[in-house]
Amino acid sequence: MSEIPGKLSFQLKTMQDLAVYSHLRDFRDMSIAEIGGGDSRILPQLAKTNRCFNIEPFEGADNGPKGEVRITGVENIRTTVGRFDPILKDASFDVVFSVSVVEHVADPEFSAFLEDNIRILKPGGVMYHAIDMYLSDSPTDFWRDRFEMYRKAVTERDDLLPVGAIGASQPAFTPDMASNPDHIMYGWKTISPSLNDLRQIAQSVSLLIGVRRC
After folding, report:
1. Which of 107, 92, 105 minimizes the C-alpha distance to 32?
2. CB-side exposure of 38: number of CA atoms within 13 Å?
3. In a 10 Å sphere around its CB, with 0-12 CB exposed, 13-18 middle and 19+ buried, how is residue 212 labelled?
4. CA proximity to 100, closest of 39, 174, 29
5. Within a 10 A sphere around the Cβ of 204, how many other Cβ atoms?
6. What is the pLDDT of residues 46-72, one digit of tens each?
7. Contact, 205 vs 130, CB < 8 A?
8. Is the Cβ–Cβ distance between 136 and 202 less than 8 Å?
């Protein structure tokens, strides 16, 4: 969790971490890689019973760490998924996952990102991606198109099998969704001010996609 003076701050990333971890916590003796893990909150727990890797360039992109972060029991692989870097061998991992990474992948680069995910995943392996989205109380063209891109990516391929429900094709915010509290959104005003207008009319939520490689 992120820290603010005098207390710990509960935020959407807490829910994302728990959602992803709930799918992985019982895994043992697996090869698990987090994409863009930075100073990972999940890998320290998984590393107690698995072989864990952090695929992270540590270049400071998208508010990530600018210097290498060492985590006990976790091996850093300093590269970026989507470049088909030979340092990442084919069929290397039983599990690949990310939290708040996929939304930073530009739409034209998403296909390569997905293909590289599949390439490094072992047959029968699974991947989970928690993806940040902004939703208002009615669907918008941008997020409808973005959601449809993600949905098609995991439902229209013979080599992938969705894990769990994919959800509706018309994403809109509803009261049963978790979102970021106001003080977190206020803090983001200085971190990424370009989205401030959007934050006035939309809620920050997460989409969790799970896929198994056939």
Report:
1. 92
2. 14
3. middle
4. 39
5. 22
6. 999 999 999 999 997 777 788 999 999
7. no
8. yes
